[in-house]
Amino acid sequence: MNFKEKCDDNFFIESDKKLMEVLSLIAAIVTPGFVLACLKLNPNMPLILKLVAWVVALIFIVPYCSIYISSFVKEYLSMFFYLGCYLASGFAIYLLYFNDFSEGYCLIFILVVFYITLTFDKIRSLLFYLISIISLVSLSVYFDRMRDYGYDNNSFIVIMCLTVLSIIVLLNLSIRESHKKALNESRKDYQRLLDVSPDGIIVCEGGKIIYANEAIARIFQAEDKDKLVGKPIFKFLDPREYKHTIIGIKKIIKNNDTDYVEEILNLSNNASIHVEMANILTTYNGKNAIMTIVRDISKRKKMEDRINQMAHYDSVTGLPNRYFLNMYLQNAIETCRNNGQSTAIMFIDLDRFKIINDTMGHNFGDVVLQKAASEIKSCLDESDFISRYGGDEFIVVLENKCFERSKQIAKGIIDAFSNSLNIGEHMVDITPSIGISFYPKDGENAENLIKYADTAMYEAKSQGRNNYKFYTPEMNLAVSRSMVIESALRKALRNEEFMIHYQPQIDLNSREISGVEALIRWKHPELGTISPSEFIPLAEETGLIVPIGEWVLRKACTQNKIWQSSGMRPINIAVNVSYQQLKYYGFVDCIKKVLSESGLEAKYLELEITETILKDIEELKYVLNELEPLGVKLSVDDFGVGYSSLSVLQNISINNLKIDMSFIKNMIDNSKSAAIVKTIINMGKNLNCNVIAEGVETKEQAEFLRKNSCNIAQGYLFSRPIEAEELEKLINNWK
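^ thats the sequence. predicted structure below, dont judge the formating
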C-alpha cells in the first residue's frame, strides 16, 4: 500500500472526523504560538533554523485548514501532518541545546525512522509513543533552560502551549492507531470473505492474475489457487471472446463501471465451461486492477439448452418440431420469393400407425417413429429439412426442388418402407401416404402450403395408402367429405346408425344354406348410405374399429341365437375381424363375454381374418391359440391376394379358406385365374379345410366350382346382403 493510502486510512477516518476538526482548530492556534515563542527565546538562532520554524508553523496550519477544502486536496495534504509532528519533535530536541549541530543529526535520524515506519506498522506504532514521550521530556528540559536564561515571565504561556500541543499529538496518535488496528482487522475479515466466497474471485493487473481465491481454483480445476497467480487471464478465455472482453475492460476503465458478461472458459483438460462474470475496477497493492467475480453457470446453460431443445425439437425423434418448422418454412418461402425459386412441402403420414401404437404400446410406437424418421431422412438431400409435425405425421421441406425431383424423393420414401422395420424381436410393416404442395403454385404462405399438402395426403390414403399425390384444387371436395365422415363416424355408434346385413353361404353339394356372413352397413341421416369401403378405413385409422367390431360381433351372435330359438335350423355366422381387434388385449375375453351373454354356442361362430394379417402371425399366434379351445371357427378371407405360406397355415387351426372374388370373376375366361382357383381348392383339401368362393354371380361359375370340389359359394347368384327378417324368410322358403 502506498504512502497516500496509509495517510488517508490512518488520519481521515469517518468515525473521528468531528473530533479531528476540533483538535485541528486547537492545533492550528497553538502550534504557531509555540514556534514564534521559540524564535523569541533565541533571537540569535541561525537563519536556516528560523526558516525551518516558519515551515513547521505552516505545515500545521495548512493541513488543518484544508479540512474544509475538497477531499482530493485533503488526501494529498494530510501527509504533511506527519511531517509536522516529526519536525516539531526534532526541532524541540534541537532547541534543548541551542546551536548544537549534533542535535541536527538527531532530527535527521527521526525523519529517516519516520519513513521506515511507514512500511512497518508495528515499529511505527511503538515510535509514535516514543516520539511523544521524547517531546514531553524535551519540553521539561527546555523549561529548565529558559529559567537559566531568565525568561521566567513567559514560562507559563509557553508551558501551556507546549503541553496542549503534546496532548493533542499524543491523543491524535492514539486514536489513529486504534482505528488502524480496527481497519486491519476489517481487512483481514474481508480477505477471509474473499477466500471462502462460493463465487470465484480473481484480481488481474496488466492481463495477469495477481490474486485468486479457492473457488476460482475449483472452477479452473487448478490444484492450488497460488498456481494461478502470474498466469495470463486470456489463457482461460475462448479466443472468440477476446475482442468482446477487451471492449468490456476499456469500458470499465473509462466509466469506472461494472461489466456483466457471459464467457466460455477453457480448462486444462480441454474441456470448457460457461461462466457469468462481473468485472469491477479496483485498487490492489496500490495499483489499479480489475477484480472479476466468476460464477459457474454450466448447469444453468445445460438447463437452458434443454429447454431450448424441448421448445424447438421433438423429444421422441430428435427432429425439429412444429414450432421450428413454421419458422424455417417462413424463411424458406422468403428466400424463394427473393430468388424466384420454388419449394415443395411434403406431408407424410404413417398408415395405420395408431393401430400399432394402441396394440403394442406407446414405447414401442415411439421406436417405430424413430425408425420411420431415420428411413425418411435417408431418402433426402443434405439441404432438405424434415420435422415431426405431430403424432405419426412428418413434414419435409424441399427447397429449390422441381416437380420431377420431388417425385423421385416421394418414390424413394415409399420404397424405403417396402421392407419391414426390424424393431427388437418384431418385424413391423408400415407404409407412408404422402401429399405434396408447391410454393408459389399452390400457395404463398406456410399455413396454406401445409394444409394443401395435408389434403393431397388424404387423397393418397383414399386411393389405397402407400402412395403419393400432388395437390390439386379438386381434392378439397373429397377431403372435405372424408373429414365429415370421420366426424360423423364418432357419433354413429352412439346414435345407432349402423345396421347388419346378412349374405347366405350355399353348400354346393347339398344346395342348402350352411351359413351367413354378417356385413355392417351405415345409413347416415343426412349423407345417406355410406359404403363400407369408405368408412371402414377411417374406422381403422381412428381406432374406432374396435368398438364398432365388438358391436357387430354382439349383434351377429344375438341374431343367430334368436334364429335358433325361433326353430330355424342352426347355421354358422361369419364375422369379419380386423387386425386391431385381434391385437386388442381384451379380445378373447370379449368373445367369451359375447357368447355368454347371447347364449350362442361357440361352434356356430366363425371369425374371418384377412390373409395379410398372417404376415404378423407371430404377434397373433397366442390370440388364435386361445380361441381354439373355445370352439370358435377361423376363416382366412381374400385368400390368394395377400401373403401366406404352408408353414403359417400349418401352425394355426384354420377351418375355412375363402377364395378372393377377383379370381372367381375371371376364372371362366382366364386360364391363370382358373388355375389359381383349382390350386386353392386343392390346398384346402390338403389342409382339411372347407373352401368358400365369394363373389359368385353366374351359374357357370357355380358349376365350375362344384366340379372342382369347392364346398361352399357365396354371391349375388344366391342373394345379395339382406336384413335379418328377409334372411329368415329366405331360409324358410329355400328349396
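The CA atoms of residues 42 and 98 lie 8 Å apart.
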